[in-house]
Amino acid sequence: MLIKKAPEFRWSEITPKHVYMNRRKFLAAAAAAGGAALAAGPFSRWIEPELRAADLAPLKVASKSPFSTTDKVTPIQLVTTYNNFYEFGTDKADPAHYATKFKTRPWTVTVEGEVAKPQKFSIDDLLAMAPMEERIYRHRCVEAWSIVVPWIGYSLSVLINKVQPTPKAKFVQFFTDLDPNQMPFVRQPILDWPYREGLRLDEAMHPLTTLCFGMFDQVLPNQDGAPVRTIIPWKYGFKSTKSLVRIRFMTTQPETSWNEEAPTEYGFYSNVNPNKDHPRWSQKTERRLGGSIFSTARQQTLMFNGYGDQVASLYKGMDLQKNF
After folding, report:
1. Would you say residue 323 lies in a domain?
2. CATH number of the domain that 125 lies in?
3. What is the per-residue DSSP string for 71-110?
4. Residue 193 belongs to a domain
5. Which of 153, 154, 135, 132 is nearest to 71 (CA)?
6. Do 83 and 141 meet the contact criterion of CB atoms below 8 Å apart?
7. Cα angle value 208/142/112 (rounded, 5°)
8. Is residue 264 part of a domain?
9. Is the confidence at residue 9, as pLDDT, over 60?
10. How many domains does the chain have?
11. Per-residue DSSP letters for 214-227?
């Protein structure tokens, strides 16, 4: 039997080495304790992924965003079963399996720090804050794969204007939920939990930066960041915080999880930049999900993920090799 190999599927492209090794130790321990089914699960789920988004509630869309790309949309089957969400596992198929019972109501997002009006918003408060737009964005992951998703939400600036940042506010920090009872992998030393990300205030205020509640005309699936997340389409995917619970306005640049974990590999800015290679692989090309898993077809990576006309001015005069 001839087995065709896919050279682009290397562990170095999919999972950072220390994360993969930690996961191997975890699975070995699980098997020793009678958890062999857990260890075997991710592979079997990738062979025959289960689409759970069909059970989700519809989300009314008021308008189509002028920011949307005309690129072909990635099938929902892939968007909901091939995910990075390490709180629910480090394999791409893990989140669709382990996040199924994650409770997203009641849910609040706390806004604090350098703002005139710090407060807590319920998910219903946020949903009612502005009309929903469909924004079809390219979404580029640092592992050199990409998708195109019809996200549903509105500009994060709507929320920011509500809380009124003080003149001291220069940066914004975002926090993912941390619930060991529902997120089984936060018990593992994969990252320094909770997951944290950050932007400069002008980046957060840019109209492309989206507070997102759904996709494909439905509320967000748990594995894709329910009930609310951020989307920053010109940056690598890990900059977009899932299952958002806290936003902090700060005077200084905040800590971010991957930059703290591996500062030479994951910069604070993390703009999509084909001219800045990751230390372990090139960023010059990417594989758009949607074809055969054995396909070697790749396409050129676009500067700022193709959103340069909108965002390049944010970085005028900056050395993007140093500020990566």
Report:
1. no
2. 3.90.420.10
3. SPPPPHHHHTTS---GGG-SSTTHHHHHTTT---SS-EEE
4. yes
5. 135
6. no
7. 50
8. yes
9. no
10. 1
11. EETTEEPPGGGTTT
